[in-house]
């Protein structure tokens, strides 16, 4: 089974540390994360704003710049199973050789990531050509045209500027950029959050089709559980810097074990349902001063004394998922 | 002031924006022949569903009187928005119509305390009261949304969560006891676990305080959950309008059908995401005839020549030639 | 307040230098009230003595102790700069903020007037005015003139900040709170404009003192009242450099450069500190 794993984090712990004009702050944004992402799957990470999922994603991609500092743990990339590479301690050359070819990244709000004063084709040249430099410029252009054709973009798109395209088309361009070199892992951070319903549907369908064709892994981060329901094979629910539950999509939706997950699933509105839905009191914690023990205990309707004193670790539960909760074990 | 039965009457409202320079400008009709009304003494939650660029925000700004219509009428309780002049009349208008904006962190001034705006509102709409009375009003409004001055007083916006801040924004809006709240995407920026509490709050405000709410969103699920009536806006036109239940479960206009099908169902194992056509920028705005004809699976020749009139069937209004044969508007 | 001071002192070299320089200037100004000699009395000490413990900056050919001269000079120059800066701030802030917020005809008219002032060549006008009105010219009138010539550029900067603030959603919220225009400008927008006002004040101060020095060196101001420029003027009149009395030029120049640099670095460090985005970052928010 371990040959199946392509990315693995071990006890990852990272904080944002700032010193501004004499005020020191430490925000423990990722606090003990252990996940194993397999080949040929869509792995979803769900959580609310401020839970640390974007930071986790950055770390998985090997981006770690101050004020973000890793305090413990590693992120192993197993593109070559014989030689696991710790992305957090890799040299710049090693990272350069795997970026875009093995691991590519679709950033949040990525439609705005395209350089507004460069034509689309130039962006392809800037980002992707260095990794495909064994092709002649003409061959490269041909490859790009063929690739974006699969995304149903015509070649006139290449000669346009970003502002001349609609949001949905720009998003397809960014997906095209990320998939051109057929990487093993595509990391996508809220790829459809700013898009309209119809464009979102279209984009997600596209991503799923590409994943099926290339057989690679997509690590998808979004707070929208409906997206996960339709896209992910396995989901990890993140809360205040820790993974509180992880499992196959079906199990998470049908048999959630952690109180937070249960609440999230229960409160999803659906067309056709009008009965009143409950809600959680309180608010997500301040990560500069997180609660003791289980980070969810101040808001948990089932909290006991033990929850404030000890931190639960993820363990297999009856529903088929792994949950970090004393009551679910 | 008036003997009309309508609280808000919008008839044929139109707003044109001119893009581009002197010689090569193009006209975009952002809001086109929009008509709907809210009845006095019969509080309603009226949802307006549209994609980005559909004109829904422009329409909301016109109702709030931040923009004036180029033609057509908008009347609040018999008062035409164009005839309101002078500070006293403007204040009277705003007393009855208050906004709730999408991003609570932008609604408040990041550099000032959250209760500042609440105290200002109380002070300006109820002049001549003592400090204690003003504070009382703010406290009552905060309590109505599930907060209190002790939680929120003296805090800056970034110290509260998105959910709390949006509630504070609602509290501010209800201080002058408005008859209408115009809420533009009020929960799209709020985390999932807190979203339903705010949506429930709108329900409470309508039921307990008799406030009508114009709820603008692209999320069909929450719209179904709280609204009584719904209107679908596409490129400036209301293409369908009527009671929520029937429209969302059995849409008549092809665009509404497209939206309902595109909405993601939060159920794993859903049928595979089909890819659908997406609109491209401004071209649709400039097309002759029905603006949806380019993508409509049922488009006929006459659709591309002239804009269809609104056909009426009791409470249901559809702007589509497919339903011609009923009384044209 | 103390915490802010301590934080700044610890972390910013510019701030430390600036505070030291301001302290120096203040001490000099205080000393000026205790001077044993009157400002323009001449031949009260032995002329042409190089710097020593008795005469810290030496003495000049007119028999004045340069140290005490500098206390008067610094006091007068800085006071002139401060008055100019305050007057021009008042004009710039009012015009800039109202034009930015109101827009429309008011803005157009205000900006036309503004542009006329911006393109005026300041130095030639000042030279001309001083030349014509030499006898009636005193420091206060000159300060007013400088204020009138110095507000225009900063008003535009303030206006552009207000224009961008108007687009913010909270400006709309403020309208719906029923707040009158003036209150919106001064309560909601001012905290954002304050860093600009602050840095332009110091700039304006430095500019006006520099102008005064220029004019005085040319002998166009009242050369019987001590100021840094006047000291240099008299040094030139007596050909100090050629006759070897280099300390007569050195004293005002060194003091001027020291105080200017200090004020500038102070404004830079304080500016970053009072910028609202920094304050929010310290508390953990995002602006």
What this model shows, in words?
The complex is a heterotrimer of chains A (329), B (329) and C (287). Chain A has 329 residues and is α/β, with parallel strands linked by helices. Chain A has a single domain (2-232), classed as Rossmann fold, CATH 3.40.50.300. Chain A has ten helices and 13 strands. Chain A has helices at residues 53-60, 92-98, 120-128, 137-150, 167-179, 197-214, 225-231, 249-254, 259-266, 305-309, and strands at 5-20, 23-33, 36-38, 42-46, 68-77, 85-86, 103-106, 185-189, 217-221, 234-239, 242-248, 315-316, 322-323. In chain A, the strands form two sheets. Chain A has an eight-stranded mixed sheet, sandwiched between helices. In chain A, strands 1, 2, 3, 5 and 6 form a five-stranded antiparallel sheet that branches. In chain A, helix 5 (167-179) runs parallel beside helix 6. Chain A is globular and about 70 Å long. By secondary structure, chain B is α/β, with parallel strands linked by helices. Among the domains of chain B are: 56-222, 3-Layer(aba) Sandwich (Rossmann fold); 252-263 and 279-329, no CATH class. Chain B has twelve helices and twelve strands. The longest helix of chain B has 18 residues, at 192-209. Chain B has helices at 56-63, 87-96, 104-107, 114-125, 131-144, 149-152, 162-174, 192-209, 220-226, 244-249, 254-262, 283-286, and strands spanning 6-19, 26-39, 45-49, 71-76, 79-80, 97-100, 180-184, 212-217, 229-234, 237-243, 311-313, 316-318. Chain C has twelve helices and no strands. Chain C has 287 residues and is mainly alpha-helical. The model of chain C has no long low-confidence stretch (mean pLDDT 85). The radius of gyration of chain C is 22 Å and the shape is globular. Chain C has helices at 2-11, 13-32, 66-102, 104-118, 122-132, 139-150, 152-166, 169-176, 181-217, 228-237, 246-274, 276-283. Chain C has one domain: MetI-like (MetI-like fold).
């Amino acid at each position: 089974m371990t040959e199946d794993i392509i990315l693995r984090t071990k006890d990852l712990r990272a904080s944002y540390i700032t010193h501004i004009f004499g005020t020191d702050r430490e925000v423990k944004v990722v606090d003990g994360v252990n996940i194993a992402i397999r080949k040929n799957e869509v792995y979803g990470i769900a959580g609310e704003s401020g839970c640390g999922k974007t930071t986790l994603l950055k770390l998985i991609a090997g981006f770690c710049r101050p004020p973000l500092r890793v305090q413990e743990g590693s992120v192993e990339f197993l593109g070559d199973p014989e030689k696991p590479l710790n992305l957090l301690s890799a040299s710049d050359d090693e990272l350069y050789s795997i970026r875009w070819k093995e691991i590519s990244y679709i950033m949040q709000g990525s439609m705005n990531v395209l350089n507004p004063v460069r034509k689309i084709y130039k962006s392809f040249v800037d980002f992707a050509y260095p990794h495909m430099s064994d092709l002649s410029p003409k061959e490269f252009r041909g490859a790009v045209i063929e690739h974006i054709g699969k995304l149903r973009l015509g070649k006139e798109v290449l000669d346009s500027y970003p502002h001349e395209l609609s949001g949905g088309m720009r998003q397809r361009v960014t997906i095209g950029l990320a998939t051109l070199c057929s990487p093993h892992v595509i990391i996508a951070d809220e790829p459809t959050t700013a898009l309209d319903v119809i464009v979102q549907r279209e984009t997600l369908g596209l991503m799923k089709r590409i994943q099926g064709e290339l057989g690679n892994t997509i690590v998808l981060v979004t707070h929208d559980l409906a997206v996960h329901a339709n896209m992910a094979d396995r989901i990890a629910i993140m809360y205040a810097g820790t993974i509180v539950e992880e499992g196959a999509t079906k199990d998470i939706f049908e048999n959630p074990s952690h109180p937070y997950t249960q609440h999230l699933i229960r409160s999803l509105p659906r067309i056709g349902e009008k009965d009143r839905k409950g809600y959680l009191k309180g608010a997500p914690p301040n990560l500069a001063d997180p609660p003791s023990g289980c980070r969810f205990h101040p808001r948990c309707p089932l909290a006991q004394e033990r929850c404030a004193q000890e931190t639960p670790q993820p363990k297999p539960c009856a529903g088929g998922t792994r949950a970090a909760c004393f009551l679910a074990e | 002031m008036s003997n009309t039965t309508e609280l808000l009457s919008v008839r044929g409202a139109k707003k044109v924006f001119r893009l581009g320079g002197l010689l090569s400008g193009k006209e975009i009709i952002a809001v086109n022949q929009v008509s709907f009304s809210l009845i006095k003494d019969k509080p309603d939650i009226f949802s307006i569903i549209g994609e980005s660029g559909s004109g829904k925000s422009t329409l909301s700004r016109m109702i709030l009187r931040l923009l004036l219509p180029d033609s057509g009428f908008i009347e609040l309780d018999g008062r035409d928005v164009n005839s309101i002049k002078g500070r006293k009349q403007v204040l009277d208008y705003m007393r009855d119509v208050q906004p709730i904006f999408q991003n609570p962190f932008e609604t408040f001034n990041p550099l000032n305390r959250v209760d500042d705006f609440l105290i200002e509102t109380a002070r300006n709409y109820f002049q001549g009261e003592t400090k204690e009375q003003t504070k009382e009003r703010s406290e009552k409004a905060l309590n109505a949304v599930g907060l209190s001055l002790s939680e929120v007083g003296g805090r800056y916006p970034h110290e509260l969560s998105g959910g709390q801040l949006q509630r504070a924004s609602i509290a501010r809006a209800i201080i002058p006891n408005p008859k209408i709240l115009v809420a533009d995407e009020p929960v799209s920026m709020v985390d999932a676990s807190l979203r339903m509490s705010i949506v429930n709050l709108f329900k409470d405000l309508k039921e307990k305080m008799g406030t009508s709410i114009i709820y603008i969103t692209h999320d069909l699920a929450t719209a179904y959950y709280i609204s009584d009536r719904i209107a679908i806006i596409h490129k400036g036109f209301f293409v369908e309008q009527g009671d929520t239940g029937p429209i969302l479960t059995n849409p008549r206009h092809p665009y509404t059908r497209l939206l309902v099908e595109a909405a993601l169902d939060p159920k794993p194992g859903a049928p595979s995401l089909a890819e659908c056509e997406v609109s491209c920028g401004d071209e649709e705005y400039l097309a002759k005839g029905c603006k949806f004809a380019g993508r409509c699976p049922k488009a006929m020749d006459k659709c591309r020549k002239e804009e269809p009139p609104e056909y009426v069937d009791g409470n249901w209004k559809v702007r589509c030639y497919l339903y011609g044969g009923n009384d044209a508007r | 307040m103390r915490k802010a001071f301590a934080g700044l002192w610890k972390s910013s070299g510019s701030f430390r230098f600036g505070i030291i320089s301001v302290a120096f200037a203040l001490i000099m100004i205080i000393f000026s009230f205790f001077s044993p000699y009157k400002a323009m009395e001449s031949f009260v000490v032995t002329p042409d003595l190089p710097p020593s413990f008795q005469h810290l900056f030496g003495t000049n050919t007119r028999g004045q102790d340069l140290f005490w001269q500098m206390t008067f000079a610094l006091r007068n120059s800085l006071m002139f700069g401060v008055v100019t800066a305050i007057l021009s701030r008042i004009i710039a802030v009012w015009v800039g903020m109202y034009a930015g917020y109101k827009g429309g005809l008011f803005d157009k008219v205000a900006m036309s007037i503004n542009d006329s002032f911006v393109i005026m060549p300041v130095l030639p006008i000042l030279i001309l005015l001083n030349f014509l009105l030499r006898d009636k010219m005193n420091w206060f009138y000159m300060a007013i003139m400088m204020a009138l010539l110095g507000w225009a550029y900063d008003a535009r900067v303030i206006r552009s900040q207000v224009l961008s603030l108007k687009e913010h959603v909270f400006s709309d919220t403020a309208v719906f709170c029923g707040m009158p225009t003036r209150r919106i400008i001064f309560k909601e927008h001012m905290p954002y404009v304050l860093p600009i006002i602050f840095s332009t004040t110091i700039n304006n101060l430095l500019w006006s003192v520099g102008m005064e020095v220029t004019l005085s060196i040319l002998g166009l101001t009242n050369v019987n009242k001590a100021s840094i420029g006047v000291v240099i003027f008299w040094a030139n009149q007596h050909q100090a450099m050629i006759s070897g009395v280099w300390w007569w030029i050195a004293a005002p120049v060194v003091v001027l450069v020291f105080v200017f640099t200090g004020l500038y670095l102070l404004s830079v460090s304080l500016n970053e500190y009072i910028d609202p985005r920094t304050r929010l970052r310290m508390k953990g928010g995002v602006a």
